[in-house]
Amino acid sequence: MTKPIEVTDATFEETVLKAELPTLVDFWAVWCMPCKKIAPFVDEIATDYQDKLQVVKLDVDGNTQTALQYNVMSIPTLMLFKAGEPVERVVGFKGKAELLSKILPHLAP
Q1: Is 32 a catalytic residue?
Q2: Would you call 94 a catalytic residue per the annotation?
Q3: Nearest 5°: phi and psi at 41?
Q4: Entry pTM
Q5: Mean pLDDT taken over the chain
Q6: Which three-class secondary structure string do you get for 35-100?
């Protein structure tokens, strides 16, 4: 099972913005209950689409610079990046099917 990669303010540019694959970023925090509820879906997506999608997690408490840069005002927020640009944003708890409906149109067939 492929787990999401932990990123920080320091590693965000290299890991996300310069990534060859589309990258799903899970902005979360340890104390956030909706973040904990959505985490299994994010983990499953990381495994199911590992050849087409990179999945990373950014703890907003320790990495405020990146969260502020992308106007993350509530968590969980999931953002999909392609070629270094955000192309999709999902805010709040969503089911796996709803997450996939936002992500899959951006992945190569």
Answers
A1: yes
A2: no
A3: -65, -40
A4: 0.96
A5: 96
A6: HHHHHHHHHHHHHHCCCCCEEEEEECCCCHHHHHHCCCCCCCEEEEEECCEEEEEEECCCCHHHHH
